[in-house]
Write a structure and sequence with these properties.
The protein is an alpha/beta fold. Its EC number is 3.2.2.6.
Length: 1202
């Protein structure tokens, strides 16, 4: 809800609001906001008078403050660990507020404006102090962590207080740990710090401020501190504090002895100088640091400081080990929620995915990022190779693998492991980070990490595997399933390995995309293929490409073979079936077709999913990765060539043309006639096919003999078959699925054949089909798809025997006259008779126990519907344009779950239907219904209600408040009734053939569509349109005056407009008759975004060109030619329904300016920013130089404009 001043007068509302947006003119957050018990989201947009935030409810999970230009302070704290703090464009936030946001411990993200900041992705509590550290940071971005630093640490201190005491010990501890500290011994002291000291501060990665009681007595120290705090804000420099025998409160408020010293130093200084010191002291006092008074042992405090500094330097040193990795940040973001390094519990995390997807790379990267946080750490690689599945002496194998693990962890080659209890005894009190890579059976985990109690608090054990059953058996609940990279990421991975950069060399782009497609987004495939092609010329790439298509790389094959060989024989066979024949097929169909081939198809499929060899998507489709599919096909081919007694699959021209033997049972073809050459002798041996799928427009006629010789076909898919009938010898007794898409068949076969196994029949677009076979034996038929079989006149009565029928699709069977009884089909879920324009007779009743959707659109000759009995599951009833239908069956009232009823165009219907009050969509347009029951007011789910205008409509005021779509058709009206403007929910107003209508009055601003079609007398628009979403559609309104046309054309809207016209309006001064338009924009300065009108006018190319009902899509692409950049534009496309010639189509386009950073640079001539990760330390420095140059220029530009 949005805030209003009177909101507190409704205390009941305060207890239920979960999201509140405050108004722009608010000066403070009302105190009663804190008491809103259910408030989860607080939004503050453009609250330019708001200066501070008070303490708010701990129930808040999101504070979203955007562009609050005066917001400075946070007089609060945030205790919800799930809170999200978002303060975009709040540039006046003071340092204390920024520190509060940045240091708040939350599992969500935080956002605040900074010039630069060290990357901190994940936080945890270390020891018993409030220390914040980066844990899952990627190689540090080009800020404080990626500059070229001259020193590790710059210490700021008051010499007389600490130089001979604590400071000397700190510097010695730093020296022992290899930490380089700046020394100011050779710098001559003066009243203010000079350029040399400023450069030393800016050139140090970490600044340590050692605050003592006389620190403020030195203007030198205070100037140092001001410079340090400036570098912290602008450069992201890390600042650490040590409070030595001084209270942080005295520093912040300048009180006590510290305050006296500060006051004395300020004497004679300018107000500006003093305020800069004061601000620096206030800010540094809020930085959590070490307090000497909290430590009994000063040596221990110094050791902790030195360790923290060392760890901070290590964690912010960019790693070169993983240069070029793509998509790793996303993996780390997902892993952090599983790792939970802030918890002391021992946690085992699984990384699961198919071979070659990058599990080991993710684990190694993770190890590189966090292992230094643990006492002990190790990666044990290739465990399945060290300890294979088949070992006669299991115990010895477990001892060996545990010995290797402990040897790696303790860096001790000759470690002795007398029994399996050694690992637990040695590691139970140690914080360990352990990666167990390529685990493939549970006994390996029993030897290496049997229980969490084997390891000390805070330990993390990472297990990579291709078999999720291993993780489930070990009761590992935290599992990261690695997904395939996006196409863009995959392309970058390939290019990194093929070209050493994230984009291809000139002239290689198309070839690179082709090779990437063969690897199918599998990272291993992308790396191997990219490396194999690296350094080759373009002709060499072109010569190598055909080999890549048909031969899997040996390295990839060997990795996949590990998983394949671990399967039992039956699971291997099923994988080959999927890879060669059933990839992309629905799960239930694969189970049905292969039911008699395997003992338990579902269980075997489950095994393949767990082994990451296949996947099943949300739509139930079985999917096999491109590389895995190629492996399966090559394995099958190899078995065939070597004469193994295994199932054979012929999937390409080369296989088919080989000498065939009698073991061949499956056949797949997707090639043109020119590629296929088969001898008659080969065909004679093709007598045992069980699965045939042929997808081709052209194929040799002798392939038809397949149907003569193969008597046990279980699946037959043959698209574009040219025969008018299947051969008389064809035996469908074993047929489970039949698909004959767009065939020339007149009939399938003669007589009655045994069809007990048939479950799915699809003959769609077989436009010559006139007759279906006898279906009396098809008792298990589930789907019968006859869409667009336009010559089919009737369905055989034997369809009544199809008692298991679930889907019957007869849409666009335009010659179908009668639908026989289907009363026995009690499992029917969908009946589609759309566009059966000749349909006259329907069965007297339909058992609708399971029926969910019934479609009869444009069945204009249907007079009476069957009784729809037991329709409790019916959700959609679409009767659009059943113009002869006299009434709806009373049984429709039993459809208590009906969500959509469309009876628009049923012009004979006069009575408002008795329907469920739970309905969501009701369309009564173009019916004879002239009443609306009062009960409709209680239909709470109703979102759309369309109705045609009738004279007494205003006598039903309750209807006026519900109608969302109103149609006036061929009405003899001269004006729009005034009450139309008051229809509060009206979103669409349609005016069809209103030939006496002269003008449109002012209408509701809620309208999103005004459609006036063929309103021949319409001249004036006495109104304006204020809704930015409105669509103004005025086709065939040829009498509109110029003022009306200008109003339509110039109305600013995110929708579109249509009006008649034979010439492009003069205001569109940039024109073209082709599909592109080049515009030179020389106005200066250009705004950051452009909104402009576009116009399209279609003309007749010749006299034969006519208007049709097709859909035309206009795609909008804007390119900045000068910089060769694609400009972001909204919208990116427009759809034109039934495009008309001699009409003007207009719409607005908003183009966002894309400005290259280097275009602002004055000191550099670079056109593009280089990738810093490929230039080493100098690369980061180069990017920073460009950034500083561009920012200076941009700031000058902004200043000049303001």
């Amino acid at each position: 809800m949005s805030y209003s001043e009177s909101l507190m007068e409704f205390p009941h509302a305060l207890d239920i609001i979960t999201e509140l947006q405050l108004s722009k003119d608010i000066q403070e957050v009302p105190p009663w906001v804190k008491g809103m018990s259910r408030l989860r989201v607080l939004r503050l947009y453009d609250c330019n008078n708001l200066v501070s935030l008070p303490q708010l409810s701990d129930s808040l999970s999101w504070i979203d403050a955007n562009n609050c230009k005066s917001l400075e302070r946070m007089d609060c704290c945030f205790n919800n660990p799930e809170i999200r703090l978002q303060f975009a464009n709040c540039f006046k936030l003071n340092q204390e507020a920024r520190d509060l946001i940045m240091h708040t411990s939350t599992s969500r993200y935080t956002m605040l404006p900074v010039a630069a900041a060290a990357f901190t992705k994940f936080r945890f509590q270390q020891d018993n102090k409030d220390t914040i550290s980066s844990v899952l940071a990627l190689p540090c971005p080009p800020t404080s962590v990626s500059r070229i630093w001259k020193h590790h640490v710059f210490p700021s201190f008051h010499g007389e207080d600490v130089r001979k005491t604590i400071l000397s010990h700190i510097l010695e501890s730093f020296r022992r740990k290899g930490i380089d500290t700046f020394s100011d011994n050779n710098i001559e002291r003066s009243k203010s710090i000079g350029l040399e000291l400023k450069e030393a501060i800016r050139g140090s990665k970490i600044a340590i401020v050692l605050l003592s009681k006389n620190y403020a007595s030195s203007s030198w120290c205070l100037d140092e501190l001001a410079e340090i705090m400036k570098c912290r804000e602008l450069l992201g420099q890390i600042v650490m504090t040590i409070f030595y025998e001084v209270d942080p409160t005295d520093i912040k408020k300048q009180t006590g002895d510290f305050g006296k010293a500060f006051k004395k130093t300020c004497n004679g200084k300018t107000k500006e100088h003093v305020e800069r010191w004061r601000k620096a002291l206030e800010d540094v006092a809020t930085i959590a640091g070490e307090h000497s008074r909290n430590w009994r042992n000063e040596a221990a405090m110094i050791e902790k400081i030195a360790t923290n500094v060392s760890n901070m330097l290590n964690s912010c040193t960019p790693s070169r080990d993983f240069d070029g990795l793509v998509g790793m940040r996303a993996h780390m973001d997902r892993m952090e929620h599983l790792l939970r390094l802030d918890l002391d519990e021992v946690r085992m995390i699984g990384i699961w995915g198919p071979p070659g997807i990058g599990k080991t790379t993710i684990a190694r990267f993770l190890f590189n990022q966090v292992s230094d946080r643990f006492q002990l750490s190790a990666i044990i690689v290739n465990i399945r190779g060290i300890y294979p599945r088949l070992r006669l002496d299991e115990y010895s194998a477990q001892m060996e693998v545990q010995q290797k693990m402990l040897s790696t962890i303790f860096s001790q080659k000759d470690i002795i492991v007398p029994n399996l209890g050694v690992a637990q005894e040695r590691l139970k009190d140690k914080k360990v980070f352990l990666v167990l890579d390529e685990v493939d059976h549970i006994r390996q985990l029993d030897a290496l990490a049997k229980e969490t109690r084997w390891f000390g608090p805070g330990s993390r054990i990472i297990i990579t595997t291709e078999d999720v059953r291993v993780l489930n058996a070990h009761r590992i609940n935290h599992v990261y399933k690695v997904k395939f990279p996006s196409s863009d990421e995959a392309f970058q991975i390939f290019c990194m390995n093929a070209f050493g950069q994230k984009q291809p060399h000139e002239g290689f782009c198309k070839l690179a995309w082709e090779v990437m497609a063969l690897a199918g987004n599998l990272p291993l495939g992308l790396k191997v293929l990219g490396s194999a092609l690296r350094g080759m010329s373009k002709p060499e790439w072109e010569r190598t490409l055909p080999k890549i298509k048909y031969c899997l790389d040996g390295e990839i094959k060997s990795i996949i073979k590990f998983s394949f060989d671990a399967l039992c024989d039956e699971d291997k066979d099923l994988f080959l079936y999927i890879a060669c024949f059933f990839n992309g097929i629905k799960l239930h169909k694969v189970e049905g077709v292969l039911a008699k081939k395997f003992l338990d198809v579902r269980q075997s499929l489950h095994v393949l999913v767990e082994k990451s060899l296949i996947s099943i998507n949300q739509s139930g489709l079985i999917e096999t990765h491109t590389v895995l599919k190629q492996f399966g096909r090559e394995t099958s081919r190899k078995q065939f060539v070597h004469g193994f007694a295994k199932p054979q699959f012929l999937v390409d021209a080369r296989d088919i043309c080989e000498v065939l033997n009698d073991d061949t049972i499956a056949f797949y073809r997707d090639y043109t006639e020119e590629e296929l050459s088969i001898s008659e002798k080969a065909l004679e041996r093709m007598h045992d096919f069980q699965f045939v799928r042929i997808n081709a427009f052209a194929h040799p006629e002798r392939l038809h003999s397949l149907l003569h010789h193969s008597q046990k076909i279980r699946l037959l898919h043959w698209s574009y078959l040219k025969d008018i009938c299947l051969p008389c010898t064809f035996n469908p007794e074993f047929l489970v699925e039949l698909g004959m898409y767009a065939s020339k068949l007149h009939k399938l076969w003669e007589g009655t054949k045994q069809l007990q196994n048939l479950r799915w029949m699809d003959l769609c677009y077989s436009r010559d089909l006139t007759k279906l076979p006898d279906l009396s034996t098809a008792t298990n038929l589930e789907d019968l798809i006859l869409r667009n079989c336009s010559s089919l006149v009737r369905i055989p009565c034997s369809i009544e025997n199809a008692t298991n029928l679930q889907i019957l699709d007869l849409s666009d069977c335009s010659n179908l006259v009668e639908l026989p009884s289907i009363g026995n089909a009690t499992r029917l879920e969908e009946l589609n008779l759309n566009n059966c324009s000749s349909l006259v007779k329907l069965p007297s009743s339909i058992n609708a126990t399971n029926l969910q959707k019934l479609f009869l659109r444009n069945c204009s000759r249907v007079v009476e519907l069957p009784a729809i009995e037991n329709a409790t599951n019916l959700q959609v009833l679409d009767l659009h344009n059943c113009s002869s239908l006299l009434e709806l069956p009373p049984s429709i009232a039993s459809a208590t779950n009906l969500k959509k009823l469309d009876i628009s165009g049923c012009s004979q219907l006069k009575c408002f239907p008795e329907i469920s009050t739970n309905i969501e969509i009701v369309n009564l347009i173009e019916t004879a219904i002239k009443e609306v029951p009062l009960s409709i007011m209680s239909w709470s789910r109703l979102s759309y209600f369309g109705m045609s205008y009738f004279e007494s409509l205003n006598e039903f005021p309750h209807a006026l408040d519900i109608i969302t779509d109103l149609v006036l058709i061929r009405e003899d009206i001269q004006e729009i009734p005034p009450w139309v403007k008051g229809m509060s929910r009206l979103g669409v107003l349609r005016l069809y053939d209103c030939k006496n209508l002269v003008s449109l009055p002012q209408l509701s601003d809620n309208l999103e569509y005004i459609v006036a079609d063929n309103c021949q007398s319409l001249e004036r628009l006495d109104c304006c349109f204020n809704n930015r979403e409105i669509h103004l559609i005025f086709p065939n309104c040829f009498n509109l005056n110029q003022e009306a046309r200008d109003l339509i054309m110039h109305t600013s809207t995110d929708g579109y407009a249509i009006f008649s016209g034979t010439q492009v309006p003069a205001c569109f001064n940039h024109r073209a008759t082709s599909d592109s338009l080049k515009i030179k924009l020389n106005e200066s300065p250009l705004p950051t975004s452009l909104r402009f009108k576009a116009c399209i006018m279609l003309v007749k190319v010749n006299e034969e060109t006519s208007n049709d009902d097709s859909l035309t899509v206009v795609t909008i692409d804007i390119v900045d030619k000068q910089n060769d950049l694609e400009v972001l534009c909204t919208p990116s496309s427009r759809c034109i329904n039934a495009p008309l010639t001699e009409h003007i189509y207009t719409f607005e386009v908003k183009a966002e300016e894309v400005k290259l950073m280097c275009s602002y640079c004055k000191k550099h001539n670079d056109k593009f920013v280089p990738d810093p990760y490929y230039g080493g330390a100098q690369g980061f420095e180069k990017v920073l130089d460009l950034l500083e140059d561009a920012c200076e220029s941009l700031l000058d530009s902004i200043t000049a404009q303001s």
